[in-house]
Hints:
Layout: E1 2-10, E2 13-21, H1 27-30, E3 42-48, E4 56-60, E5 63-68, H2 70-87, E6 93-101, E7 104-109, H3 116-125, E8 129-132, E9 135-137, E10 144-145, E11 152-154, H4 156-162, E12 180-182, E13 195-196, E14 202-205
Parallel strand pairs: 2-3, 7-14
Antiparallel strand pairs: 1-2, 3-4, 4-5, 6-7, 6-8, 6-9, 10-13, 11-12
Amino acid sequence: MTTTLGTFRALGHPFTIELDGDAPVDVGEVFAGLAEACTPAATYRFVFPDPAKDEGQLFRDGELIAGGRARVLLQILITRLGRAIADADVGGSVHATTLRVGDGAVVLAGPTARGKSTLSAQLLLGGASLVAGDISVIDPASLEVQAYHRPLGLAEKSFEVLGIPIPPAAGEPCGCGGKVLATAGHLGAELAGPAIIGAGGRFLAR
Length: 206
């Protein structure tokens, strides 16, 4: 039985998520920050044929993308959404996570595997709120960062460093590498609307 989890928007890419079977992770919760009423341009469907096994498949518009563990499939979908945003030619995008700290925005920019997500998670645990995850679209005139509530991709060892457990909704520890998708809610933080880099704001490159 296929269940439609809703419509979502990753900046310029609106989409639907469907679930066929019992997923070992809470797919709807992981993507809840992107939920929005919209006309989808694509449909992504997760299929888990055996509830006793953490093995499934991910499809886009009926075409198989990949098979594997649920957490791996979630990460593949996040990567696909990033490519879709690039294809939509959303101007002013930067590989960075943006947080609201006090009255201003803090933008953490840098290449992959430099610790942006771990530092972001630490700040979220300390009271910051999430404006944009991993991709930040900045208006060059106003320096306003659009809201994009994508979950953070954290390595299992990052949870050890932060001293917090892996959220049950994100899946059990597997030691299989890859990332765990953690929402702001998983980290006890709130979602923030667009924020301006200005007085009280910072742009940090790592």
